[in-house]
Amino acid sequence: MQILNVWTLCIGKFLHGIFVTVCHMAATKMLNETVPVFMWGRVGVVVQTMMAFGYMLVMGMGMGLPTDDYNPALSNAKNDMAKLADQEDTFWRFMYIFPCFLNIWMLFNMLVFIKEDSIMFNLSKDDDESALRLIDKVYHKDEDRNEILQALKG
């Protein structure tokens, strides 16, 4: 079955790899910019935990499906019907492509709804005003925004 769809599998895995890499890097950078330094140890595992939860969710989608009893070594009417059911099953394609749809949806939301650049990107461009605006959005109002800005620059 995979020989007939090898290019679909290759393209899906390639896109999935790109999106997962972007998600890992973006989520890690977002944690570094938004979480106070003293909390990094406690919050640092969140990215991997959520990614693992997503993988378990996708892999768990195939559980509970009816299974057919096709055995290539046998030849009888019941086995031939199981072979036909096995050939008509296309749910595995959905399991391969579903993570890509989730990642495309997430990137779309990031591009449409999160219109600012990150705090660190603004600091690398020496745009302190934009960085301060984002610090006001991200951090608690009681925290000193200039102190946070200096800590991020240092």
List its salient traits:
single chain, mainly alpha, 8 helices, 71% helix
Question: What does this protein look like?
Answer:
It is a single chain. This protein has 154 residues and is mostly helical. It is 71% helix and 0% strand. It has 8 helices and no strands. It has helices spanning 6-34, 40-43, 46-60, 77-88, 91-113, 119-124, 128-138, 145-153. α1 (6-34) packs parallel to α5 and α7 (128-138) packs across α8. The longest helix is centred in the first third of the chain and has 29 residues, at 6-34. The radius of gyration is 23 Å and the shape is elongated.
The number of distinct β-strands equals: 0
What best-fitting shape do the alpha-carbon axes yield? elongated
Q: N-to-C terminal Cα separation, in Å?
A: 55 Å
Q: H/E element string?
A: HHHHHHHH
Secondary structure class reads: mainly alpha
Uncertain stretches of 5 or more adjacent residues: none
Measured as a percent range, the helix fraction is over 70%
Number of helices: 8
Binned strand content = under 5%
Mean pLDDT: 76
Rg from Cα: 23 Å
- Major beta sheet summary: none
